[in-house]
Amino acid sequence: DDGWTVAGRRFTSRLIVGTGKYKSFEQNRAAVEASGAEIVTVAVRRVNVMDPKQPMLTDYIDPKRYTYLPNTAGCYTAEDAIRTLRLAREAGGWSLVKLEVLGEQKTLYPDMVETLRATDVLVKDGFDVMVYCSDDPIMARRLEDAGACAIMPLGAPIGSGLGLQNPVTIRLIVEQAKVPVLVDAGVGTASDAAVAMELGCDGVLMNTAIAEAKDPVAMARAMKLGVEAGRLAYQAGRMPKRRYADPSSPLAGLI
Amino acid sequence: DDGWTVAGRRFTSRLIVGTGKYKSFEQNRAAVEASGAEIVTVAVRRVNVMDPKQPMLTDYIDPKRYTYLPNTAGCYTAEDAIRTLRLAREAGGWSLVKLEVLGEQKTLYPDMVETLRATDVLVKDGFDVMVYCSDDPIMARRLEDAGACAIMPLGAPIGSGLGLQNPVTIRLIVEQAKVPVLVDAGVGTASDAAVAMELGCDGVLMNTAIAEAKDPVAMARAMKLGVEAGRLAYQAGRMPKRRYADPSSPLAGLI
Amino acid sequence: DDGWTVAGRRFTSRLIVGTGKYKSFEQNRAAVEASGAEIVTVAVRRVNVMDPKQPMLTDYIDPKRYTYLPNTAGCYTAEDAIRTLRLAREAGGWSLVKLEVLGEQKTLYPDMVETLRATDVLVKDGFDVMVYCSDDPIMARRLEDAGACAIMPLGAPIGSGLGLQNPVTIRLIVEQAKVPVLVDAGVGTASDAAVAMELGCDGVLMNTAIAEAKDPVAMARAMKLGVEAGRLAYQAGRMPKRRYADPSSPLAGLI
Amino acid sequence: DDGWTVAGRRFTSRLIVGTGKYKSFEQNRAAVEASGAEIVTVAVRRVNVMDPKQPMLTDYIDPKRYTYLPNTAGCYTAEDAIRTLRLAREAGGWSLVKLEVLGEQKTLYPDMVETLRATDVLVKDGFDVMVYCSDDPIMARRLEDAGACAIMPLGAPIGSGLGLQNPVTIRLIVEQAKVPVLVDAGVGTASDAAVAMELGCDGVLMNTAIAEAKDPVAMARAMKLGVEAGRLAYQAGRMPKRRYADPSSPLAGLI
């Protein structure tokens, strides 16, 4: 596996990790290192990356070594998200960004109308926009048509750890996409990450599954291996499933 | 992870691989190497490990480097299996063995009555017996009481690639066992191997999933990573699953 | 169970059936009767309900006995759908309608941008609009805010028979909705219909699962019973699931 | 559906219900009636069917109207079970019985060695023995060879309500059996019962799912409909599942 490309940038690691919910910047740093990630996503509204008087994430996770991917966590309208990313660009020069426009606090499910509108504006504004979205294949195509540089459907609600709920829609999105597809949200354990990759996704983004594991650093390494395992299995081409059903049996096709 | 012990022998790799269904000994060798396995299982009745005039597996997979685990594939009675393993011990000195007594050709499901009887005889005969078995927790305990040094429940029918069908029974077996538990049979892809390990199993044995992948060597490496990912995730302690159900809602607990 | 209400109309049956893919109007009639449905949905563009010179569905399925629910199957833009329903209203006086605006032929997945736009226009135009949609809870709420009188998320792609793929999103839609929620599309067999109802849905709409069963009339009756079984089970309040995990065990919560 | 036959007796209902865990005999009676069951199973050791000074089940559930099926719940050895059923035959004349020999209290999983031994003795002793068993197809065949008149594999642990865990093994048992197969244990809600029947089982036995529902009588009726729905769907012949995978796509067969 020689890696993947988004917005003209080449990466080897297919795991993107977050920077929220950790006990300390130190723990966050150790988890990022164990994960092998080359990209870390940062909630512009929550993580201090600008005020040098306060402890700064950048002191722990070196922005020269890791690609910072600013995200719009906590934004519930296109305007909020656009404003947040413009501030980030002014402050840090970031143009590769992750857009998320949420529909409600309870589930953190994306609001696809606002998301599509924000994508449109941001792309025209020169951003490279990776987009957190529902697992709706038609919406995914609209995002791609609007210029999104990566499609990031949720596998399950953010922070739920339920694992990929709907492989059918993820597969449909992967089959049609001409930009990278990354499962974003819903992974709970290493096998979930492997499943996402076995469906043909280009990568996985996660935060809670690592940060809220009993041992985040060990789980970060587990996720690294899970993503690599799934990718390799996808490339290797799995054996067919066999059900031993006699085709002439009335039971054939029942399971 | 510092490895696991079976019958007093220490191993680091938790993946045991087979030596059937490969296109050539050469491909088998490459796959074993990529898998990182330290134990290879060999069907005494099918693989030439004794006749030096024919091509021999041992020329490709060095028995000094790998632990050969003779198995009784193709045996349908306790007597057949016992005879086969006694021959193997006489010929090669092997005492750590894998017992499988099959119930029928169509599904290769184990015959637990014969399996239990053979375990009893072989243990008294001085063998260290790892036992392929159904996923019945009470039968697993009987095997352990009879002196089996490892319990190896099927995840799904041999060669089906369906993945682990019943996590409930595997978990019950793991919870009660005082000897290693390895899922044997049913794995189809890397995430299946990770799932088995995340349930707390000590290892996984597989053959078809690697040998019948489009690229067996790549899949062998995927399985190595899948097993390691699952083990690490198990040790790391996964985040709890969350369903966002309001406890006062009539829907709480429905899914 | 005393029934449900949509757009001020009271129904007892919670199963809505289609009128496509049958071998004959006669078979369709027999299946509708066996299903116990009170509402039949009719693709305005495909089924002859207006030209008295051709065989007419209304000769077989009496519009006085059954509520005809015109749908916009085959429409790929809001304009197409709106035009189709206006024609239907002019011709047959129907104002309770089912809107579907499809995103592509291959999967028949809904185009939610066009669907939302069409809903808006049709509601303002005085229609009572039941809406086929994705299983996106935020989009479902937008449809409801736009005046949809029923939300009809797909359980799986139309005609796939895969069964309900994502119970999490369906539950979220049911929990928040103030109008009826019906699973539309994806049901393959009777247990699938029961599952939808057990999640708290108000009803189920299906066509292929009945029309393409080996015996459509028997399957229609099976679906009637499946819907009733699921509804009753939902109302009865199921027992909790139990996993026998010792809470102090490291395995608790793993499955 | 014209019913099924066990040990020469013809029944119309395919649902067998229990008589444990109810709040009162009265509630039990109402639930049995709602279930439409013709057979009720009774734990000989727990339910008073012999001491006329105590309240008696037979005062509520008429043994002339319902077939009493004595079971050996609470027996952990073949001897215990055999003794229990001999007492029941002496006292009540029952010869159609349900054998269960449990392996442990925690999971109530069957002990198949003891079960097989007890079956052998009881059949020779003239009983018609319906047997609760694991979902091991080879053990199921051994029971049939020993003369069991019905095979009753568990769907999940008794009282767990988890639903049918392993459709593969249940299907294998159904495919090979020449006597009726009934899923016994594990059903939690109506769709679970439908799933068992859709796999081709002849019937379902349950107790906790009804007795511990919030409204047992309503759930009993739900289960009646669920069993009927599943049976009808099985007979009707479901539509094939479709995945829309382009056969030439590298993703075909991945899900």
Describe the structure concisely for a colleague.
The structure is a homotetramer of 255-residue chains. With 255 residues, chain A is α/β, with parallel strands linked by helices.
Explain this structure to me?
Four copies of one chain form a homotetramer. Chain A contains eight helices and ten strands. The first copy, chain A, is α/β, with parallel strands linked by helices. In chain A, the strands form three sheets. The first copy, chain A, has a five-stranded parallel sheet with strand order 5-4-3-10-9. In chain A, strands 6-7-8 form a three-stranded parallel sheet, covered by helices on one side. In chain A, strand 3 (15-17), helix 1 (25-35) and strand 4 (39-43) form a beta-alpha-beta unit. In chain A, helix 1 (25-35) packs parallel to helix 8 (216-236), helix 2 packs parallel to helix 3 (112-124) and helix 6 (190-198) packs parallel to helix 8 (216-236). Chains A and B meet through helix 6 and helix 8 of A and helix 6 and helix 8 of B.
Labels describing this entry:
disordered C terminus, 255 residues, alpha/beta, homotetramer
Outline type of chain A: globular
Rg over CA atoms of chain A:
19 Å
Spatial order of the strands forming the largest sheet of chain A: 5-4-3-10-9
Oligomer: homotetramer
Contiguous low-pLDDT stretches of chain A (5 residues minimum) are: 245-255
Number of strands of chain A: 10
